[in-house]
Amino acid sequence: MELLSSHRSFGGWQQRYGFKSTSLNSETTLSVYLPPQADRGSVPLLYWLSGLTCTDENFVTKAGAQRAAAELGLAIAAPDTSPRGAAVADDAGWDLGQGAGFYVDATQDPWRSHYQMATYVRDELPALLAAHFPAIDCDRAGISGHSMGGHGALTLALNNPDRYRSASAFAPIAAPSQCPWGEKALTAYLGSDRSAWLTYDACECLKTSAWDRPILVDQGEADEFLAGQLLPQQLEQAAQAAGKALTLRYQPDYNHSYFFIASFIDDHLRFHAEQLGS
Ligand SMILES: N[C@@H](CCC(=O)N[C@@H](CS)C(=O)NCC(=O)O)C(=O)O
Fold first, then answer.
1. Nearest by Cα to 117 from 12, 23, 256, 211
2. Which of 147, 166, 177, 209 is catalytic?
3. d(CA 58, ligand 1 centre) in Å
4. Where is the active site (predicted)?
5. What are residue 99's phi and psi, to 5 degrees?
6. High-pLDDT (> 90) share of the chain, %
């Protein structure tokens, strides 16, 4: 891993690394926040998955998470949202291809040779972090994200309750098999057989998942994508039917932006820290 940048932040370090990912078969970047407590012992980890058009840097520069992460002793790993590079398939739209990996393992050409984001986040990242950051305890890991990344966080947690101990999301794409963003991406990455999509739809995952911990979701009421793309009411119904402990908070006047995320990120970090024992 090549250290691309390192900044002192609230007594810890905000760092960015570049490396070749084996699952993505491409160069990628990863941002890591190491809280001050990492100097003295082991710290739990929060994975942050960003949304459409983002890199690993949007969260780092806009969410304002470092202050609370430093207080709570929580490391944060923020990966990029897709494989990148001239040799990697792309699409003219901003909602497919580079910057829009949707945290799935693609099975269709031309995507499948690089777009293995589920494997990358679930398997490669913890191994990499454990090897390079001895202070990070990858067995005490939670996951969160925004929009496409909220969808990624919920589906990864629900599909892997042994891997993550806490889960939350901001304005997640809650039912991707029923909204235009999801239908476009899942058709491209997984093919037109909708049964292959279900494992990547949080509402479907809730029906069968062994996840037994509380889930926190914040949703802005003035979110421009609320009715057309995000469908949080479906998540609420699915959680209720499955008997899962979902707290869905509607936040009046907040839109889809990082101003919304920055306003509630401390609540989410505290929520994760409590469950991760930090
Ligand atoms: N580019 C799209 C918007 C995409 C968008 O809102 N992306 C969200 C995630 S879904 C985001 O986090 N954007 C980056 C940012 O705000 O820093 C548009 O022009 O409508």
1. 23
2. 147
3. 10
4. 147, 223, 256
5. 90, 5
6. 99
Predicted confidence at residue 81, as pLDDT, reads: 98
In angstroms, the CA 187 to CA 79 distance is: 24
Question: What is the mean pLDDT of the segment spanning 195-210?
Answer: 97
For residue 256, which atom of ligand 1 is closest to its CA?
6
- Enter the tokens of residue 6: 């390192």
251 in helix, strand or coil?
strand
Residues in the chain: 278
> Would you identify the CATH topology of the domain 2-276?
Rossmann fold (3.40.50)
What pLDDT was estimated at residue 79?
Answer: 98
- Computed over every residue of the chain, the mean pLDDT equals 98
Q: Which residues pair with 101 in a beta bridge?
A: none
Q: Is the ipTM of this complex over 0.90?
A: yes
pLDDT at residue number 197:
98
Q: Among 171, 166, 135, 151, which residue's Cα sits nearest to residue 15?
A: 135
223 part of the active site: yes
Q: What is the pTM of this model?
A: 0.98
**Alpha helices (runs of H) in 160-226, residue ranges in sequence order:** 180-190, 202-208
**Residue 89 pLDDT > 80:** yes
N-term to C-term CA, the chain: 27
Burial of residue 169 (CB within 10 Å: 0-12, 13-18, 19+) is: buried
pLDDT exceeds 80 at position 143: yes
Active site residue 218: no
The label of the residue with tokens 């398939």 reads: 89
Residue environment code for 187-206, b if the CB has 16+ CB neighbours within 10 A, otherwise e: bbbbeeeeebbebbbbbbbb
Tokens of 28: 């990628």
Distance 133 CA to ligand 1 centre (A): 31
Q: Where are the domains of the chain?
A: 2-276
